[in-house]
Each structure stands twice: as structure tokens, then as C-alpha cells.
Specification:
Layout (H helix, E strand, L loop, with lengths): L1 E2 L23 H21 L7 E2 L16 E3 L4 E4 L5 H4 L4 H10 L4 E4 L12 H4 E4 L4 E5 L6 H11 L2 E5 L2 E2 L2 E2 L7 E4 L2 E4 L6 H13 L3 E4 L2 H4 L7 E4 L5 E6 H6 L2 H8 L3 E5 L2 H7 L16
């Protein structure tokens, strides 16, 4: 996780992120609130036994979205690290080799897969924002958008030995920019909003999730608007599965949805209202999960 130095509104990403809102507070207040929300989430994760590594954002250059590292890097159990091409030029500044070097010191690191050169062709694939990964069954779910290019996705799947399941989806009449705002996958559980998915893919989508052993929790489009799709399943030091989500996401869930999730994971929620409203991302986006093997 990256503790932000200059969290704020990014007009470049707002071009196709309908979840962002222009702040009504001054910049200093926005940054203070974001830091408070970040620190509280980290505190809760650590209390629950999650091993959290926090890196400090660098003051320069200013990076308003540094709090969302999952878009520029992913870590994999085969020892590979992948870095990604980003839509916003401001966000490309977030990639930091010093972080990758530090992570590699403590974990088995075999290879770095660099995809950022696709930015020169204006083609983008924004990490585990674009990709929701079923790492057990090697399936990459991807909502195609200006930030999720099919040709790079196919390249990624070929290199990483995954199969892609692609679809188009819309929220509030516009293309959904990242797959992880409308679905999440954990061990034995999938939380998905099928209402935003193109009709011709819904049945195939549902059947694939069911055939790979997932209990399916259906979200409404309204719940997507509260970032209920932006959850993340993580394991704590005891091997217990936790489902991490924002307070807004949790409050939008119905009792039967909570009961289904809790069959598979204990729910942990934390309020990140400022980060959600201004950054257009939630708890899942704030965490780049690490599957690298321990040394």
C-alpha cells in the first residue's frame, strides 16, 4: 500500500471514470482526510493479522492517485512481477523501481514483465483494475474499456498462462472503466453485478463462475455506485480469508448478501469516503496484493 503525499482530484482520469467527483473542500483538507482514512484502513488490516507493507509516496513529482498501486503493478506466485501501461500520464509517474527492489529483497523474484511501452501506442491495461483474476483457475475477467485493451490482455494471458473472459459493461450510461468496480473474486465466492454487463454475455459469465466453484452474490447497479464491487479477498497470517471493503460498500449490502459472503470470508470494512468520492476508487484499488513466494 502507498501512503499518499498529494492525494487529490485527477482531471485526466475523470475523462472516463464516472465515479470521481470534484472536491468541495480545499486541497489541504482533502489530503488530511485521505491520510486519516488510509491510516485507519491499514490499522484495521494489521489488527486482523494481515501483513501490510506501507511505502511512503514521494512528494515530487505530485501523484494524486498514488494511493491506488494495484493499477501499475501485480505480484504473482510464480515469482513474476508485472508492470502496466497507464491511461493517465500523471499516473505513469507512480511506477517506482525502488518499491519493486525492496519487495524483491524479501520474496522470491524470478522475472519482471514490462508492458508499459504500450503507452507509446496509446494502448492500456491497468493492472488488477482492468483484470479481476481467478488465480486458482487461471481466468482473467476483463471489462473492455479505454483502459483495458484487448490486444494487451491477450498478450498478458499468453505470457501469464491465463484464459481471458471479456465483456462490455456500462454504469450510468457510460463504459465501466475498470473491471474491479463491478466484480470481486475470492476462494469459493464471487461478487458480481450482472445488470451492468452486456446481455449477451450474462449467462455465460454466470455459468463460468459457477462451474469454477464460486458461490455467486449478485450486486445491483445501485450497489456498484457504493463501490460494493470493489472488494478484495485477502488471507491473514492464520490463513483465514477476509473480505475487505469500504464502509459505504458494507452499508449497501443486504442481509442475505452478507450471509453468503460470510460463509467464505470474514468481512472487514473501513470508511474511505473521501478517497472514493475524489479518487474514484475504493479499498480494493488501495491494495496491491502480493503472491510472490517467501524466500
Amino acid at each position: 500500500m502507498i501512503r499518499p503525499a498529494a492525494f487529490g482530484f485527477n482531471s485526466q482520469t475523470a475523462e472516463n471514470n464516472t465515479f470521481q467527483h470534484i472536491p468541495q473542500l480545499d486541497q489541504q483538507e482533502v489530503r488530511q482526510r485521505a491520510l486519516k482514512e488510509f491510516d485507519e484502513l491499514v490499522r484495521k488490516l494489521r489488527v486482523e493479522g494481515v501483513n501490510v507493507k506501507v511505502f511512503e509516496d514521494t512528494p515530487e513529482p505530485i501523484k494524486p492517485d498514488a494511493i491506488f498501486p494495484n493499477n501499475w503493478v501485480s505480484f504473482h506466485a510464480d515469482g513474476r512481477i508485472v508492470t502496466y501501461p497507464m491511461f493517465s500520464p500523471l499516473r505513469r509517474l507512480e511506477r517506482r523501481n525502488d518499491i519493486l527492489i525492496k519487495v524483491a529483497e524479501d520474496f522470491g523474484f524470478e522475472e519482471k514483465v514490462d508492458l508499459e511501452d504500450y503507452e507509446d501506442e496509446s494502448l492500456f491495461l491497468e493492472g488488477t483494475g482492468s483484470l479481476v483474476l481467478d488465480r486458482v483457475n487461471k481466468i482473467a475477467y476483463a471489462c473492455l474499456s479505454p483502459r483495458t485493451d484487448l490486444s494487451i490482455l491477450e498478450k498478458w494471458c499468453d505470457v501469464m498462462n491465463y484464459t481471458a473472459f471479456t465483456f462490455h459493461a456500462q454504469f450510468d450510461g457510460k463504459d465501466i472503466y475498470h473491471t474491479n468496480v463491478m466484480m470481486a473474486i475470492g476462494d469459493g465466492i464471487a461478487i458480481v453485478c450482472f445488470d451492468v454487463v452486456e446481455e449477451g454475455k450474462r449467462t455465460e459469465f454466470y455459468d463460468l463462475l459457477q462451474s469454477t466453484g464460486h458461490e455467486i452474490v449478485k450486486l445491483s447497479e445501485e450497489q456498484v455506485g457504493t463501490f460494493a464491487g470493489n472488494m478484495l479477498a485477502v488471507n491473514n497470517k492464520k490463513g483465514e480469508q477476509l473480505m475487505i471493503m469500504s464502509g459505504a460498500a458494507f452499508r449497501s449490502l443486504l442481509p442475505d448478501q452478507i450471509a453468503s459472503i460470510e460463509k467464505h470470508a470474514r468481512i472487514i470494512h473501513s470508511d474511505v469516503d473521501t478517497i472514493e468520492s475524489i479518487g474514484g476508487g475504493s479499498v480494493r484499488c488501495m491494495i496491491a496484493e502480493n503472491f510472490l513466494p517467501h524466500l
